[in-house]
């Protein structure tokens, strides 16, 4: 029995119930990888998609199972010569895109129909479980987290079924200066564009951004994170089954530095990137600013002065979800909690500790950390807890009793309490507000006299993705909203930091390059530009005479023009 089989016998959930069930005809028609069966002896093998053709590469590299280190997927190791095929594919695309309000308009309707069919497929239990298990194999997360990602994509597809793709390109017109003149604004595609996506939401983020680009008429090359490329390959194959033209998007399996070489080969008119701030800035320079970014966030939660009067069990539960779901590997994860001393005097910390202790590897409520190793967690713990008056509230240790390979992190849910005064130290501040992409949060406390100090700290945090203002005190909440800028801010009794559903804008603020995801507004902002066409088509009156060249002889004549 291979390690994978022993592991799967330990995990029994909704997803696993589909392991032995027969596949639907649709799933058999498009799928090339069975997430329930892939292992080193029977690995999944991936292909690049370029210019409408699925292609093998000369070399392949192994993707390892994050739960046990076993090789289980063969991924193309795209070399520079093979990269030229992608450059040639993108070079064919004009600035006017594949469709626009004056060209190939039937494609707006086509994508509405593709979305309808794809949404219906994701309502099939076996196909929904197929994608949930693919996610789980690449980024171990609990059944609710894995199915939640599929559910959001399914709803997104349903939202843009029917006429809703063409509604994205709705124009608007205003009266002109004279009869026959009317300026009209259109949403215009960019042409050849790119999506670079992270590992943590390997279906939701790349699929929604890719589809947004396609809706607006662009040709898109998708570069998922190398650990999770199998998920987007299977999703794109499903879209082809639903009627999406094979040549509309390219899919490349390649490391990040390899993909960068593509920018020197062909003009890519816009790149949407989701991931770390350091890479975002590097990409902005590489593309001369032609980027839309959803970069990292040191996301904070502000517990208001009235939180001690709230349901403490609920506050602890929500804080645990925000900080530790998906092992803290969310760009919206709660990294910094600012607690009013009224709440600190209750048993809030103890209840949060108890809730966090319920997380375990058996149900994947805690799991491997794919971008931070244990030695980095240890260094962060030692720094925070080594400050005067600081202490570890709970956690601060590696997980035990597992087969997670050492190339990945395995860390207990952790919280470190650091006195507020240390955040005023300019030498300490960058380390205190450094995002550690795992199940770790920094906690500090304040009282009413220190609220302006808190707002100064929040002002100095450089990334502004999500935030939570937990308070039903209208005056406090109003002040907090007025003095902060986070692009997706939850406010009120049930405020949280995590949650990127398809029903509201999700994205950072405080940066002109900020990208959004999920809504019509975000799609139009990220994947199209405004084009103004001024119609002026009435015939000239028979009595019209050629005037003199533009001259102003009297100020009165100019005013009355």
Account of the 3D structure:
There is one protein chain. 35% of the residues lie in helices and 17% in strands. The protein contains 20 helices and 20 strands. The strands form five sheets. The protein has a seven-stranded mixed beta sheet, with helices on both faces. A five-stranded parallel beta sheet has the order 10-9-8-11-12, sandwiched between helices. Helix 12 crosses helix 14.
Distance between the termini: 89 Å
Structural class: alpha/beta
Bin the strand percentage: 15-25%
Strand order of the largest sheet: 15-16-17-14-13-18-19
How many helix segments? 20
What sort of overall outline do the alpha carbons produce when their principal axes are compared? globular
Query: Could you tell me the radius of gyration in angstroms?
Result: 26 Å
Instruction: Give the mean pLDDT.
Output: 94
How many DSSP E strands?
A: 20
Low-confidence stretches: 1-12
Biggest sheet layout: 7 strands, mixed
Determine the fraction of residues in helical runs and give it as a percent range: 25-40%
């Amino acid at each position: 029995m291979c390690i994978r089989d022993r592991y799967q016998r330990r995990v029994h959930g909704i997803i696993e119930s589909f392991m032995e069930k027969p596949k639907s005809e649709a799933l058999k028609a498009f799928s090339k990888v069975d997430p329930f069966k892939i292992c080193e002896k029977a690995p999944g093998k991936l292909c690049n998609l370029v210019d409408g053709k699925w292609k093998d590469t000369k070399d392949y590299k192994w993707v390892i199972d994050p739960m046990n280190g076993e090789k289980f997927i063969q991924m193309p190791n795209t070399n520079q010569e093979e990269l030229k095929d992608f450059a040639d594919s993108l070079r064919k695309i004009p600035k006017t895109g594949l469709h626009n309000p004056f060209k190939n308009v039937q494609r707006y309707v086509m994508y509405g129909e593709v979305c309808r069919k794809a949404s219906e497929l994701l309502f099939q239990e076996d196909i929904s479980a197929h994608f949930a298990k693919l996610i789980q194999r690449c980024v171990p997360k609990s059944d609710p987290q894995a199915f939640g990602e599929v559910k959001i994509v399914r709803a997104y597809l349903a939202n843009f079924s029917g006429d809703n793709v063409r509604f994205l390109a709705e124009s608007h017109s205003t009266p002109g200066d004279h009869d026959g003149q009317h300026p009209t604004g259109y949403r215009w595609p960019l042409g050849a564009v790119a999506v670079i996506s992270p590992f943590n939401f390997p279906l939701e983020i790349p699929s929604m951004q890719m589809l947004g680009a396609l809706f607006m008429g662009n040709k898109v090359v998708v570069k998922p994170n190398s650990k999770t490329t199998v998920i987007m390959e299977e999703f794109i194959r499903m879209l082809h089954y639903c009627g999406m033209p094979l040549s509309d998007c390219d899919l490349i399996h390649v490391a990040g530095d390899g993909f960068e070489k593509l920018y020197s080969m062909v003009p890519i008119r816009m790149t949407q990137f989701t991931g770390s701030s350091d890479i975002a800035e590097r990409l902005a320079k590489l593309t001369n600013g032609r980027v839309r970014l959803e970069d990292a966030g040191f996301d904070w939660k502000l517990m208001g002065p009235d939180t001690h009067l709230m349901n403490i069990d609920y506050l602890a539960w929500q804080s645990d979800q925000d900080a530790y779901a998906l092992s803290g590997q969310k760009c919206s994860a709660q990294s910094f909690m600012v607690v009013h001393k009224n709440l600190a005097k209750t048993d809030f910390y103890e209840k949060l500790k108890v809730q966090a202790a319920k997380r375990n590897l058996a149900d994947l409520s805690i799991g491997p950390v794919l971008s931070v190793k244990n030695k980095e967690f240890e260094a962060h713990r030692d720094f925070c807890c080594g400050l005067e008056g600081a202490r570890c509230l709970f956690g601060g240790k590696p997980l035990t009793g597992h087969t997670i390979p050492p190339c990945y992190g395995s860390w207990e849910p952790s919280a470190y309490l650091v006195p507020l005064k240390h955040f005023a130290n300019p030498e300490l501040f960058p380390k205190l507000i450094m995002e550690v992409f795992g199940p770790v949060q920094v906690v500090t406390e304040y009282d009413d006299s220190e609220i302006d100090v808190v707002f100064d700290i929040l002002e100095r945090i450089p990334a502004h993705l999500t935030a939570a203002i937990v308070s039903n005190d209208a005056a406090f909440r109003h002040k907090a909203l007025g003095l902060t800028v986070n692009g997706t801010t939850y406010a009120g009794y049930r405020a949280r930091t995590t949650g990127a559903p398809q029903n509201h804008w999700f994205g950072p603020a405080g940066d002109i390059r900020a990208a959004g995801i999920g809504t019509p507004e975000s799609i139009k902002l990220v994947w199209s530009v405004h084009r103004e066409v001024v119609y002026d088509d009435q015939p000239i009156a028979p009595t019209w005479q050629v005037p003199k060249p533009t001259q102003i002889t009297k100020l009165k004549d100019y005013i009355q023009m």
